[in-house]
Amino acid sequence: MNRKHQKSEILDKGILLMCRGGYHQTGVTDILNACQIPKGSFYNFFESKEQFTLQAIAQYEKGLLELLDKIYLGKQASAYKKIETYFREVVKRFQSTGFNCSCLLGNLSTEVGADFPRISEAISQTRMKIKMRLVTFIFLHFDNQKAVEETGKMADFLLDAFYGVLTRMKVERNGLAFSDFFEFQLPFILKK
C-alpha cells in the first residue's frame, strides 16, 4: 500500500468501471477498491466524483483522438477504409471485455447528461472533436465533392448509428450489432 498512485491509472480503472456499470453504479468506493488505494489518494487528485468524471472524459477523449489521428496519418488505401478502421478499433475494445463494457460517452449521455450540465458539455465537446475528424475522412471519401455541412450531417448520422449499435450490443452481449453496422449501416451512410 506504499506505492505511489498515478492519476492516469486511477482514471483508467474508473473509466473501465463506468463503461461496465455506468455512473450511478460506480461509486468512489468502487474506484478505490479497484485501484487498491485509500480514500485520501482519490481526493488528492479529484475533488468530487463529478470532477473525476470530467477528467475521465478528457482521458477517454484523448485516446479516441489519438486513434483517429494515427489512422489519418496511416497508410490505409482510402478514406472509407480509414473510417471503417476507426470503428473496428473501437469495437475491438468492447470485444476484448466480452461485450461487458460499452462506450463511456454513450453511457454517460444516457444516464447523467441532463442532470450534470458540466458532464453533458464535456461529452458534447468530445463528440464534436470526433465528429470533425470524421468529417475530414468523409470529405476525402467523396473526393471533396460534398459540402462541409453535408459531410457534417453524415458524420452525425454515422455517430448516432454507432451509438445505437453500442446500445444494442449492451443488451445482446454479442457482436451481431457490429456485424450489421459494418455490413449494412456504414456502406449505406457512405454510399457514393
Plain-language structure description:
- The chain has one domain: Tetracycline Repressor, domain 2, CATH 1.10.357.10.
- The protein is built from nine helices and no strands.
- The chain has helices at 7-21, 28-35, 39-45, 49-73, 79-95, 104-111, 117-141, 148-172, 176-189.
- It is elongated.
- The model has no long low-confidence stretch (mean pLDDT 91).
Question: Could you name the key traits of this structure?
Answer:
0% strand, 75% helix, single chain, Tetracycline Repressor, domain 2, 192 residues, mainly alpha
**Assembly type of the shown chains?**
single chain
Secondary structure class reads mainly alpha
List SSEs in N-to-C order: HHHHHHHHH
The CATH homology group name: Tetracycline Repressor, domain 2
Q: How many strand segments?
A: 0
Sketch the major β-sheet: none
Number of domains: 1
β-strand percent reads: under 5%
At the fold tier of CATH, the topology name is Tetracycline Repressor, domain 2
Count the DSSP helices.
9
Radius of gyration: 18 Å
N-to-C CA distance = 58 Å
Corresponding CATH architecture: Orthogonal Bundle
